[in-house]
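Dear Dr. V.,

Thank you for agreeing to look over these. As mentioned in my earlier message, I'm a first-year student in the group and I'm still getting used to reading structure tokens, so any feedback on how I've presented them would be very welcome. I ran two proteins. I've put each sequence directly above its structure. The first is here:
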Amino acid sequence: MADQQTFFDHITEGNKTKGDFITLGAAMLDGETITNAFVKIPLKTLNRHGLIAGATGTGKTKTLQILAENLSEKGIPVLLMDMKGDLSGIAQPSPGHPKIDERHKKIGIPFEAKKFPVEILTLSKQGGVRLRATVSEFGPVLLSRILDVTQTQAGIIAVLFKYCDDNKLPLLDLKDFKKVLQYATGEGKKELAKEYGRISSSSTGSILRKVVALEQQGGDLFFGEKSFDTDDLLRIDENGMGYINIVRLTDIQDRPQLFSTFMLSLLAEIYSTFPEQGDSGRPELVIFIDEAHLIFNEASKALLNQIESIVKLIRSKGVGLYFVTQNPTDVPDAVLSQLGLKIQHALRAFTAKDRKAIKLTAENYPISEYYKTDEVLTKLGIGEALVTALNEKGIPTPLAATMLRAPMSRMDILEENELKDLLEESKLIPKYNKEIDRESAYELLNQKIEIAEQEETRKKARKETEEAERYSSRRSSSRKTTTRRKSTRMNPFIKVLTSATVIRGVLGILGKMMK
């Protein structure tokens, strides 16, 4: 057994910090909690991203809740992706429990029940602030990556966006974009070919099918107005606590493409609109992405590249990203290497594959003279985890098996009436939940097609009128010619009679002269 005092000094020295910090709990050695051997996370490093991993039922969601509460208490806003629907209880204080008091006595931190300011957000029609973005804001590059199109098709999407910009055709929702796709190879084929080059109907057909697939996953609810302003994620309440924004995602677990679309759009918007943070000593916003495998498992290579780029760059905006998943292997290596804080709950070794995964997971953590990491990973209890963070100099803190503190808020969902009261108090719902369907590409192109059809009808009518007039003129001319011919041509019978009369007249005159 290692010397506890030596271990205490090791943990305390490794977690020493000059600035503000969050205390996660106390370090454990050989299964025993070392009181006051606090495991800390400096606020300064919380924009360096992180991972919360572990098997089902080991306490990942409660760890997420602990971090969100402590960030809010420090005046740092938080955005949570609530896939299971069990985080709304943050809006109410914990009812307390003797086991919670016992845990905190071991750690050396007094327990305080507390509620936190919460805003409920939604991607669907369930209660909460509606999250939307327009197709134009999404942009051709991001849309191409979400749809997983070919390079040629991505070029066509870029051309169509340019055409809409040049012709002041707002792309607000998927209905608009579908209409532009149809127009490009239909009524507007010649127009676009003249200005932007020929567009293949087979390519637009393929893009259209992918848009329809996205639409069926709920994309028609996400794309549109009014667009969500990411500055509304940065609100602080009257007590100086950061708002905890909870996105309810319980009804889109089977629609990973919509979840990926939302996440990538949100991260891209935050990156493009937030100012450079510099060295302020604390993050502006911390985002927790629960069930992170839903992003990575269904993502195309192009989409993964986009996510990796954003993860690398967004920390300069003072934004920390924390991925919550069952196994670190759910997260691509390129992303995993960017994560400064790692909180690893227990893993279960039921099969040879599980044991191999545990050994691989253990290699992601600093080597420790106090732990055999792969063995500890299978022995951790609920609410216990291996933790390593970054200190203020960016150096990993000592690996520590940690007894985590308990959440200060309720570890359960809100009752129906509590949720209703929370939604009624929202200042953002009146701002974003009003349906808007202003004139955009769909209506403008329909008008353009209608005008073109009317003009075509008028041209056809003029042509028919002109042809009728020419035909009438030809008939009139023909009748006059016929009349003239009739007036100058003698009837053969009359001709014979006339000739006979003349002859008889001549013969009569000659007879008289002879007499």
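The second protein is here, in the same arrangement:
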Amino acid sequence: MKNLYTISLCATMALASCQSKQIAIMQQPLTYPTTKTVTQEDDYFGTKVQDPYRWLEDGKSDEVAAWVTSQNTLTFDYLKKIPFRDSIKSRLEKIWNYERYSAPFKMGNRYFFYKNNGLQNQSVLYVQDKLEAEPQVLLDPNTLSSDGTVALSTVAVSKDGKYLSYMIARAGSDWNEAYVMEIATKKLLEDKLEWLKYSGLSWYKNGFFYSRYEKPEQGAELQAMNFYHKVYYHQIGTPQSDDKLVYEDKEHKERGFGTMVTDDERFLILSGWEGTSGNTLLAKDLTNENNPFVKLVDDLKNDHDVIDNEGEDLLILTNRNAPNKRLTKVKLSKPDSWLDVIPENPKTALEKVSKTGSKLFAFYLEDAKTKIVQYNYSGKRERDVQLPSMGTAAGLDGGKKDKEAFYTFTSYTTPITIYRYDITTGTSTVFRQTQAGINPEDYEMKQVFYPSKDGTKVPMFIVHKKGLLLDGTNPTYLYAYGGFNVNILPTFSIKYMYWLENKGVLAIPNLRGGGEYGEAWHKGGMLENKQNVFDDFIAAAEYLIDNKYTSKDRLAVAGGSNGGLLVGATMTQRPDLCKVALPAVGVLDMLRFHRFTIGRAWITEYGCADSSKVQFENLYKYSPLHNVKANTEYPATMVTTADHDDRVVPLHSFKFISALQANQKGTNPVLIRIETQAGHGAGKPTSKIIEEWADVVAFMWSQMGYNPLEK
């Protein structure tokens, strides 16, 4: 026993020695690439603001390209030194390799669904004549590129199920191309449409409506602003040059338009937007092509979504005079008469309404968890749809003659299960259950409510292995978003399961700025209230530390896009809060975001530094780029972005990391990982997702002094 104890002690000491050496290597001071500065001063209402990295905004510059290469060289050389980086990737490839399905949807007499065999870069679209029939591949986007960087972005099936129209995005860009396929023969027709962006495909008769911009100047496709969104109708078999202009707004160059055709093809609905909240509504009765568009809503004060129609009546989900939303009925001949079908619930937010089998399904959010109630078209409540547990459901969309529908259910510990729902009896049966190779019973998910700085109670989901010792040593990944009325709901992700199986803690709070508690919750975290979002996030970190889930030295904070802003603001306001910061594709220059691509649409959420002194001062106070302080020890940071991100252009990340590298005190590395042939995130190939997550996890653990468990 003594010898055994001695051997065990020696092994423990050896492991500790290896860990110490690893930590020492990863904490050696780095020599960052030289980033030049320029003399650039802007005057905002009498306040002079320096912008020494303005030159990094030029995405076409050879000098910027050379800078990107030097930064990536440093980052990947650093990541290569992490001893367990390759083993992390191998483990991720192993656990990622399981079949994943979407719920089937029906058009005409055919069923359609997506499937990924496991490690396919893009999911494949299948078709079957009956649910019991052998599925056939209809469209495999993996054949469209050698590296998986061409993705399906939108598909739409004609009302009779005869044709498939679909859009593809290349390298993650928001620009799309549209094509048409004859489903029975799988023949690709000659139709090709270009320069679609923020568009759907809405079938009507022998063609479809879509939205597009004019072709941008060569070289400016990924950075220039786009104006004058127009709606066209494309008839199958004709060139795009023959497409009919259906609607344009010459008075509002920044306004964009989404289209919808009701199932009976009676109405064309146009939803007009300029920002990320609030939209106009116009409707046209298509029974006579000379009918004019009728304005149902002519301002951008509220959100409105047409769900269906009953004859001349349109069913509209709205938050007008109802912060938690209500379903209303509006007659096109009386556009000012809005009658409640499903009144607002003052205590619970109505997230969405779907329809199938002449029934309406209201999806409510109860503390960021789904509750579904079935109604008839008169608004009579019929039953609750019984869900298996605490989590997130989606689906129940179909035709009025359908007798059944499908929905999915998931949570942070439950892979997606697809249920078949009998509309008449209200019975749910499992249609397909994902086998992800994990046992959900090994993990626990709880929801806590913690006080923010101003006393507001904020919900947070915490997930970890059952029986995990809360001693303050657990690696913890704190992720949030907090903006744009976006709901962050419990959803399964295999990448998180890898974190959890290594005794990690996953914490996801529902910050103000989201829509989990309706529009009031959203407004509590936007414009002049944006600081509430950062305070909510900081309070979440403090809760985790105070309750011994983790410690400062084992805590990583993360978020993407608006969540990247969240991380950037948090780490500049509280550099002492955590060990690792991971701002991904973030909005980090709050004074100039509106000058690039679709950034102007975020003014409704953030405000604009050019508009007023009050808005400038509010933005300047928290803008991550402008709040990096000299000689300050910031957390170990890995900024992630991508060269084809034309949503949040990478210049945000470029300028922010330059400021960090110039001012970082101590040995915590501040690096940037710039993905190539990728965009804001949508359509990213599985291989790139795995590689990036492996690098992010390796970076976190190397900074925390944590070694992964062997599998």
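From my reading of the second output: The longest helix spans residues 2-26. DSSP finds eleven helices and 39 strands in the chain. Does that match how you would interpret it?

Kind regards,
E.
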